[in-house]
Design a protein that fits this description.
The complex is a heterodimer.
Chain A lengths: L19 E5 L5 E2 L5 E2 L2 E8 L9 E5 L25 E2 L4 E2 L4 E5 L31 H14 L5 E7 L1 H12 L4 E7 L7 H16 L8 H4 L4 H14 L3 H7 L19 H14 L4 H13 L10 H4 L6 E7 L7 H13 L3 E7 L13 H17 L13
Helix pairs in contact in A: 1-2, 3-5, 3-8, 5-7
Chain B lengths: L1 H4 L13 H8 L6 E5 L5 H10 L2 E6 L2 H9 L3 E4 L2 H4 L8 E7 L8 H11 E9 L4 H10 L23 H10 L2 E9 L12 H7 L2 E8 L2
Parallel strand pairs in B: 1-2, 1-4, 2-3, 4-5
Antiparallel strand pairs in B: 5-7, 6-7
Classes of the chains: A alpha/beta, B alpha/beta.
């Protein structure tokens, strides 16, 4: 039985990037951690608002695992609102009337930045698994190239949740003098064993799909949609808390009054997960999923600093605001506390808020008032300290 | 300061106006590193950073307090004196402040020891359970005291480890610290004269404010 009856057209942002792009030629290769040079490199990005004359009001938004550069505009593939419109836009905490907001698709992604479905210049075919394994640090290097390309020296703030938060931490460690303020949200300085385990389930689901064709499905005109959907289903469970699932679905049945004594989606939660899986494959590339999950799994910021996370931030002048959500079991509050502990030990200026919500890891994408208020307050204080005037018509008074 | 001193110290005053905060601020050197444990809405931290150029950090339990602080541009961590001081390295601050919170901690002695490990100095303010009004209520009425400062009944109060000024001084001795400065405030928020004997402080001081340091 095919639980994912959909038709793929194969048209995705990768083929026709529907955003701005920066091209880096042979003279500007990306030196990746895997030890090779990636060239040419394309970085697809979006910007909102305008850069001021001092170039001091730029905020870089880093997206999560399967997010992209379409932060605050209608998504070109799904037609849905941008993934962070609760936070980014005119009058929002990341106020596009005040700040110049930049967001780029990560290296290894599938929305226009070089990734496994990009054409490998050596073969004229899609890279597939010939793309070197990408790390969080590589993603951040590519972002730094973009920021250089845009002529910006120091970012007013780098902000992001989940894998985006890892990029924020990496930015702060790699380029401390270029990051005035940093806001890592619902994230960790390293992936735990359980975290890696969940990703491995997803990768195995993709690779077990006969349509994956050892990564060469594009050449074969096929798509491992079933495997990718299962990967998404497994991951999606980790984004929600037990309480939230219980409240939303409980043991409720889907459009029926009694179980069917079959393996149909009797329960609402089953139906919901199947929907999450099937809608995901329309917008995401299976090999990209392998690459971005691998990047997360390899992330252990302290490793580059002799195992001491505090050393990663030693002497940092960046202002940090670390945010966790108390019902997030993917990157629990303790993971954020470990970051805060290291920042304190490194003498950095740090604020930390554990937001009370039952909405789990995904809370960072949702309209959670305390979280919105924290972000607004932190950014306003950073902007004041950086001398960025309030938005026209806005008020900077507390 | 004189304007505030004419008002009684108590819950009617906002935390911003609490006299012991001004006294605490007075005990802090300009341009030093300060950690305020239980910093509330950040009034003291703001005062210290804006008027004395202090590198001011805080810990606060309530989400609202932390949000208020973050919005003021202060570096404040959501946390708890009992559990989170252990995470700070030795000698990270010049002053660690605990204002009106010692009596609400689970382990006051451990908290105090951590403060003196993290900071070169600790500044502590607390309500004196030896004040004559409290003694009177316990002795004459046989009931747990309810005063302007300690307004909640025993079953609702967060204050679980009351002490008198005399008790506090003994504890300081026991943990091998010494008192650098001490002030007792009477009911009207006026500092008691320094040359008065301990028993007078213990009887007429409603609040104690002390600056401690380690004994080498």
């Amino acid at each position: 039985m095919n639980i994912f009856p959909f038709n793929r057209t194969g048209s995705r942002g990768q083929d026709v990037p529907q955003s701005l792009v920066a091209h880096f030629g042979a003279d500007q290769p990306l030196k990746v951690d895997a030890g090779v040079l990636l060239s040419p490199l394309t970085v697809a990005y979006q910007t909102y608002g305008s850069l001021n004359a001092q170039k001091s009001n730029a905020i870089l938004v880093c997206h999560a695992l399967t997010g992209d550069q379409h932060v605050a505009n209608t998504h070109p593939v799904t037609g849905k609102p941008g993934w962070w419109e609760t936070m980014v836009g005119p009058g929002r905490p990341i106020d596009t009337d005040r700040y110049y907001v930049i967001s780029s698709n990560v290296v290894g992604g599938c929305m226009g930045t070089t990734g496994p479905s990009s054409i490998n210049p050596a073969t004229g075919r899609a890279y597939g698994l010939d793309l070197p394994v990408i790390t969080i640090k590589d993603m951040v290097r590519a972002q730094a190239m973009l920021i250089d390309h845009l002529g910006i020296d120091t970012l007013c703030c780098v902000v992001g949740g989940s894998m985006g938060g890892m990029q924020v931490l990496q930015w702060a460690a790699s380029y401390p003098e270029r990051v005035f303020a940093a806001m890592p949200i619902a994230t960790a300085a390293r992936r735990s064993s359980q975290n890696i385990a969940f990703h491995e389930v997803g990768r195995q689901a993709i690779m077990a799909d006969p349509d994956w064709c050892k990564g060469r499905y594009l050449d074969e005109g096929r798509q491992p949609t079933k495997g990718l959907a299962v990967a998404r289903m497994a991951a999606h469970i980790t984004y929600m808390s037990d309480e939230a699932l219980q409240r939303k679905f409980g043991r409720k049945l889907q459009d029926r009054v009694a179980p069917t004594f079959s393996f149909d989606a009797d329960f609402q939660i089953e139906n919901y997960l199947r929907h999450q899986g099937s809608s995901f494959v329309d917008r995401f590339d299976a090999n990209s999923y392998l690459y971005v999950t691998r990047a997360c799994d390899y992330f252990d910021l302290a490793e580059d600093y002799g195992g001491s996370l505090a050393l990663a931030f030693k002497g940092s002048k960046t202002r940090f605001c670390v945010v966790s959500f108390n019902s997030d079991w993917l990157y629990p509050t303790a993971a954020s506390r470990a970051i805060v502990h290291a920042l304190n030990a490194g003498g950095a200026s740090v604020s930390f808020v554990d937001i009370e919500t039952e909405r789990g890891h995904d809370a960072f994408l949702l309209d959670v008032p305390d979280f919105i208020a924290t972000t607004r307050g932190f950014l306003e204080a950073a902007a004041r300290a950086r001398g960025i005037p309030p938005a026209p018509g806005g008020s900077d008074e507390l | 300061m004189t304007k505030l001193a004419s008002k009684p110290v108590g819950e009617k005053l906002s935390r911003a106006g609490r006299l012991d905060l001004l006294l605490v601020a007075d005990m802090v050197e300009a341009r030093s590193r300060v950690l305020d444990v239980g910093c509330g809405d950040g009034s003291l931290l703001r005062l210290l950073s804006e008027e004395r150029g202090v590198d001011a950090r805080g810990i606060e339990l309530s989400q609202k307090g932390v949000n208020d602080c973050v919005a003021k541009g202060l570096s404040v961590i959501q946390g708890d004196a009992d559990t989170d001081l252990a995470d700070y390295p030795d000698d990270a601050f010049d002053y660690v402040i605990l204002s009106q919170t010692l009596q609400a901690t689970l382990h006051p002695r451990k908290v105090l020891e951590h403060m003196l490990r993290i900071g070169l100095h600790a500044i502590v303010s607390f309500p004196n359970f030896g004040h004559w009004r409290i003694r009177f209520q316990v002795a004459a009425r046989g009931r747990m005291p309810i005063t302007d400062n300690l307004a909640l009944p025993w079953y609702d109060t967060p204050n679980i480890h009351f002490c008198t000024i005399r008790d506090f001084v003994s504890l300081v001795d026991e943990i091998g610290a010494k008192i650098e400065r001490g002030v007792a405030l009477d009911h009207f928020g006026t500092p008691l004269q320094l040359n008065l004997p301990w028993w007078v402080w213990n009887l007429f001081g409603e609040q104690g404010v002390f600056r401690l340091t380690r004994v080498k």
